[in-house]
Write a sequence for this structure.
């Protein structure tokens, strides 16, 4: 079955600074990869996803993520954060048609992003 | 607005009560999910339904009883819960459970407090 590790529980970034949130996955084949964001008291919103092709994917709100097969990573980046980006960020992995694995998505524990003024 | 609607948004229940959480998706998806999100714990997948059939039950206690009458509706029936069951319960849906159609769309969640 697939698994996801988000090594950073909390990250503090100054407003206007760049951001990188780390995500590592474990899966027997090239997986489908996702980043979700959760604002306080809300459900999870899809930021971006990687299925195949270009390893650099663009998402909403100015976020991007890069799939690196050699490192089993899918790190999320943003060149300049805004105070409204403060939230919980979840990386997730999903099974492919031929790769097998659990149904649905497997989520990491999340990274809490704090924005300093 | 994600196309997945959950009611109620907030629920307080006693340990001897029976209540239900409801989820409806307007996306034409075939798969629906219940996730549990507790403080300081990762998202826990509870149940998966695909074409109304349950495909996964992640060792969830029997005091949680899911029901999926059709591909658009999903219920979570609750009875004799414990205080540690207090959490945010998230419903979600996707076109498929695996492969390129498994992008999951979440509802806003139902906050459950067991007293």
């Amino acid at each position: 079955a697939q698994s996801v590790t988000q090594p950073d529980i909390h990250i503090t970034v100054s407003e206007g600074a760049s951001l990188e949130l780390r995500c590592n996955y474990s899966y027997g084949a090239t997986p489908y990869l996702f980043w979700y964001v959760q604002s306080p008291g809300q459900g999870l919103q899809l930021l971006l996803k990687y299925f195949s092709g270009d390893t650099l994917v663009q998402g909403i709100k100015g976020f991007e993520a890069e799939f690196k097969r050699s490192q089993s990573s899918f790190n999320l980046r943003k060149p300049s954060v805004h105070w409204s980006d403060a939230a919980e960020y979840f990386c997730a992995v999903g099974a492919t048609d031929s790769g097998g694995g659990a149904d649905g998505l497997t989520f990491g524990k999340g990274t809490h992003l704090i924005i300093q003024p | 607005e994600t196309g997945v609607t959950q009611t109620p948004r907030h629920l307080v229940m006693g340990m001897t009560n029976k209540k239900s959480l409801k989820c409806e998706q307007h996306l034409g998806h075939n798969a629906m999910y219940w996730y549990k999100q507790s403080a300081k714990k990762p998202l826990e997948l509870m149940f998966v339904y695909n074409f109304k059939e349950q495909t996964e039950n992640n060792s969830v206690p029997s005091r949680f009883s899911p029901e999926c009458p059709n591909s658009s509706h999903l219920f979570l029936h609750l009875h004799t819960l414990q205080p540690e069951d207090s959490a945010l319960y998230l419903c979600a849906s996707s076109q498929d459970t695996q492969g390129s159609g498994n992008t999951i769309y979440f509802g806003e969640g139902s906050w459950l407090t067991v007293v």
Observations:
- Chain A has a mean pLDDT of 91.
- The longest strand of chain A covers residues 87-94.
- The CA atoms of residues 39 and 87 of chain A lie 5 Å apart.
- The interface with chain B takes residues 32, 34, 36, 41-46, 49, 51, 90, 92, 94-97, 101-110 of chain A (CB under 8 Å).
